[in-house]
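Issue 218. Parser rejects a valid record. Input:
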Amino acid sequence: MSLLRRRKPIDESDKPSASDSKPQKGKEEDFGRHEDSEDDHGKSRRKTPSRIGKKHGEKRHKWSCLDSCCWLIGCICVTWWVLLFLYNAMPASFPQYVTEAITGPLPDPPGEKLKKEGLEAKHPVVFVPGIVTGGLELWEGRKCAEGLFRKRLWGGTFGEVYKRPLCWVEHMSLDNETGLDPCGIRVRPVSGLVAADYFAPGYFVWAVLIANLARIGYEEKTMYMAAYDWRLSFQNTEVRDQTLSRIKSNIELMVATNGGKKAVIFPHSMGVLYFLHFMKWVEAPAPMGGGGGSDWCSKHIKAVVNIGGPFLGVPKAIAGLFSAEAKDIAVARAIAPGFLDNDIFHLQTLQHVMRMSRSWDSTMSMIPRGGDTIWGGLNWSPEEGYSCGKKRESKNDTQTADQAGAESAVSQARSANYGRIISFGKDVAEAPSSDIERIDFRGAVKGHSAANTTCRDVWTEYHDMGFAGIKAVAEYKTYTADSIVDMLDLVAPKMMARGTAHFSYGIADDLDDPKYKHYKYWSNPLETT
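Output the parser choked on:
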């Protein structure tokens, strides 16, 4: 009750008159409007920050995965450019200084040691690169290869493989009938020492040897890179590019301009077979040979230093020709299963590689030679009794030696027979020959085409085999050196028709037989002298 107050009565004298009431009302109305306007301004002032906040809220979007990727790429690019700048800005001797600070003084390079011993350049030197190590450049191509004139398609950075892969495959492939250039395409070997000094950035081939020879006085007039198109068969390098004639002329020129000093030849890998073919060609009479006479090599060549020559072939060439799955591909498949297959990404990488590599006749020069006599059969091989395990034998530890011998015996009992170059299944590779049931594939009738009609299908010669032909190959189960050539005749008849016209894989019965004067025998040391 104390909160209630009584209202005082208003005296009539205190009431405003009528004339006074109007202005007062107006004032009240003006005041009310003023208050309303102030309230409106206040509301507007109060609403302004919220509106601004809403506008800013509309502009700011939620952080997405795309933003994270862009940020990451930006950081990588900035870091890369900073490191690149620092690398170019640092003194050339800085890496060597750091290395020597950690490991101590570096030993002198071989060329520097030879120079200190007083050795100087004497005999001219010729390098013969092997398969895939020589650079190839484009001289004429399709419309998809515009802007690539005299740019490397093979070697260097291999940038065109990533930019236009199908165009690259088309230009690196040869004609499946002739083994020469397809119509409208000319890919030629790079000339000079740069042809095979580096295979790719940081991956040297001849660069270190060239640098060390330069330390003792060699230069370009006393060093020659016998570059050739390693995709072609050996005789076709002469047919298309006259490469064998050029090598002959350059060796003669180097000998003549160096006081009659004979040349020293350094062939590497398949280049060993190529130079063996050259030495037979240069002394053979024209038109098949170079017409240099039977004493040309003795007059112009001081020595031949073969480096890793596959004189008798290499078994891994069979896997590459059979399915394009050589050891390197198998390692890549183990690291990233499915990446090279057709069922993931639909790239059909192996099909493209197989179609391209089967047009390179040079690969057939490395098919194993000598048959089962050299490489072994189903029940034996030259490696019989050899264990690939780590050697644990110690001179002072007989117990360890006995243990290693026992392990070697077990390993021999369980190991695969290396005479079986191709086996369908590990159990077949290790099983006794009496337990293997084989169905001869020779004369098998090829079935209907195994090719499909999708736009993604890449043609290979397996499509001509059909399912019946593929089944016949698989049911033979294991292949030795004698049966491999017959198997490839069935699997890739066009490839082998070209290959057997340029190479041979047997052992000579009588070297006096006139047939061995044909160039197909010149690169086989078992069928030539």
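Fixed in the parser; the record now loads. The mean pLDDT is 80.
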